[in-house]
Amino acid sequence: MMKRIAIIGGGISGLAVLHYLHQRFGNNVQITLYEREALVGGTIRTFKKDSCLFEWGPNGFLNNQPATLELIEELGLSDQIVTAQAASSQRFIQIDDHLQSIPTDPVSFIKTPLLSSKDKRTLIKGLFKKNISKDTSIYDYVCRRFSASIADTLVDPFISGIYAGDIKRLHMAAAFPKLKRKGAQRSRLCSFKGGMGQIIEVLYNRYKNLIRTNAEINSIPNDADITIVSTSAYVASAIVMNSNPVLADILLQIPYAPVAVVGLLFKKDSFKRKPTGFGYLIPSRENKNILGVLLESNVYAARSAEDQVMVRILSGGMHHPDIVNEPQERILVEAVKEIDHVYGLTANPIETFVKLWPRAIPQYEINYPHLRATIAEQCAKTAGLYLCANYLDGISFNDCICNAKSLAGELRV
C-alpha cells in the first residue's frame, strides 16, 4: 500500500519539504500539504500595486547557502534573482535622533563618532580574545569579549533588525550557531524581480495538485504514515497535543516577537534630506517603538517607479510588545512621523501599507538549548512525527530551506 505523508503548514518550510520529498520519491508516495489560509507562503508575501512592491515579511536572503541557490535553479528562478544595489551598501544607526554611518573600512572606523576612542580600542582587542563561552546571552557574550557600550550601541540594534529581540534574553550559540564556522564567504542580499513572493508562487503552481488550502488541521491525521508539522510553534502545540502533551507544552514555551511592518511610498521630491544608503537601525536604549527603517527602493531596483521612493519601517519587537494593541492608524502615523523627523517631509506618502504580525519571529532565548533538546527527544518518542519550522535551527529563509532539505533526505518511508 502506498505510504502517505501529510505536511501541515504552507510557509516556506512546508513548501520546501514538499518540493524535496516529491523530488526524492516522486509518485511512489502520496504527499499532501495542508494550509489553513487561502494562500500559501506564511509570512512571505509580496503586495504589488501599480509600480511598487511591498514586502510584508522577509525582504530577501543571503546568497551564501548552496541549498537555497540549488532550489532556485531547480525552480527555474535563477534569472529572476536581483541583488542589493551598491548604493545601499552604506548603513546607519540612529543615536540621539541623528544618523551615524556604520564604518565599513579601517579609515571610516578610525573617523566614526559612533564609537568612542576607548570603544574602538576595546573592539580591536576583543577580536583577538578566544575561548569565550557562547553558552550565555548575546549581551553577556559581547560584554565579556568587548564591552557593554559596544553591546548597546552596535549589537543591540543589529539583533533588533534580525530577531526583533532582546540581547539580554537571546542565547548566543543558539541564535548564531554559524559563528562557529571559519572562513565564511562574503555574501550579498538578494531577492527576486517579483519580490520574495515570486518563489512562493512558483512552488504553489508547481505543486498545487498536492496542496489543500483553507484546510485547518487540528491534530495529527490518522490516515498519515508520516506527519511533518511546519507551522509556528504555538500552532504545532495544538496539533500534537493529543499525541504528545509533553511536546505540546514545550512548544508553547517558545516566545515570539510581535512586529508591525509599514510600507510608505513617496515621490522623490518629498524629502528635504535625501534618503541614502540601506536604511538605519535604532538601539533599544533610544526607547522608540521603531526598530529600523529600510529604504527598499535603494536596496533593490524596480521596487518603485524612478521618481518614487519605497520605505519600509519595522516596529514593535520584544522591547515593545504592546504594538499588538496599537490600531493600524496609529502605527502608520508613528511611521510617517519617524520618516519626517529623520529626512524631513514636504509631502505625505502617496501609498501606505500596514501589516501587523502579533507573533512574527521565534525567539531563541536563554533556555532554548534545553527546549530544543527536549523537542528532539519527544519527537523521537512519537512515531511518524517530524517538525520543520523556523523555531528550529535557524529563523532565516536560508535556514528554512536547508533544514527542509535535510529532513526530506533523512526520512524513511
Report the sheet with the most strands, covering strand number, pairing sense and barrel closure.
Answer: 7 strands, mixed
| CATH hierarchy class name of the largest domain | Alpha Beta
Number of strands: 17
The overall pLDDT average reads: 95
- The separation of the N and C termini measures 11 Å
Neighbour order of strands in the largest sheet: 8-7-13-14-15-12-16
Instruction: Give the strand content.
Output: 15-25%
Structure, briefly:
This protein has 413 residues and is an alpha/beta fold. Helix content is 34%, strand content 21%.
Overview of the molecule:
The structure is a single chain. This protein is of the alpha/beta class and 413 residues long. The chain folds into three domains: 4-42 and 194-254 and 364-410, 3-Layer(bba) Sandwich (FAD/NAD(P)-binding domain); 115-180, Orthogonal Bundle (protoporphyrinogen ix oxidase, domain 3); 256-362, Polyamine Oxidase, Chain A, domain 2 (Alpha-Beta Complex). The protein is built from 14 helices and 17 strands. The chain has helices spanning 12-25, 66-74, 106-111, 117-126, 138-145, 148-163, 172-175, 197-207, 233-240, 245-251, 296-299, 328-343, 368-381, 397-410; strands spanning 4-8, 30-34, 46-49, 52-55, 61-62, 81-83, 91-95, 98-101, 189-192, 211-212, 226-229, 256-267, 279-281, 290-295, 308-316, 351-362, 385-387. Helix 1 (12-25) crosses helix 8 and helix 5 (138-145) runs antiparallel to helix 6. The longest helix is centred in the middle third of the chain and has 16 residues, at 148-163. It is globular. The model is unreliable at 179-184 (pLDDT under 50).
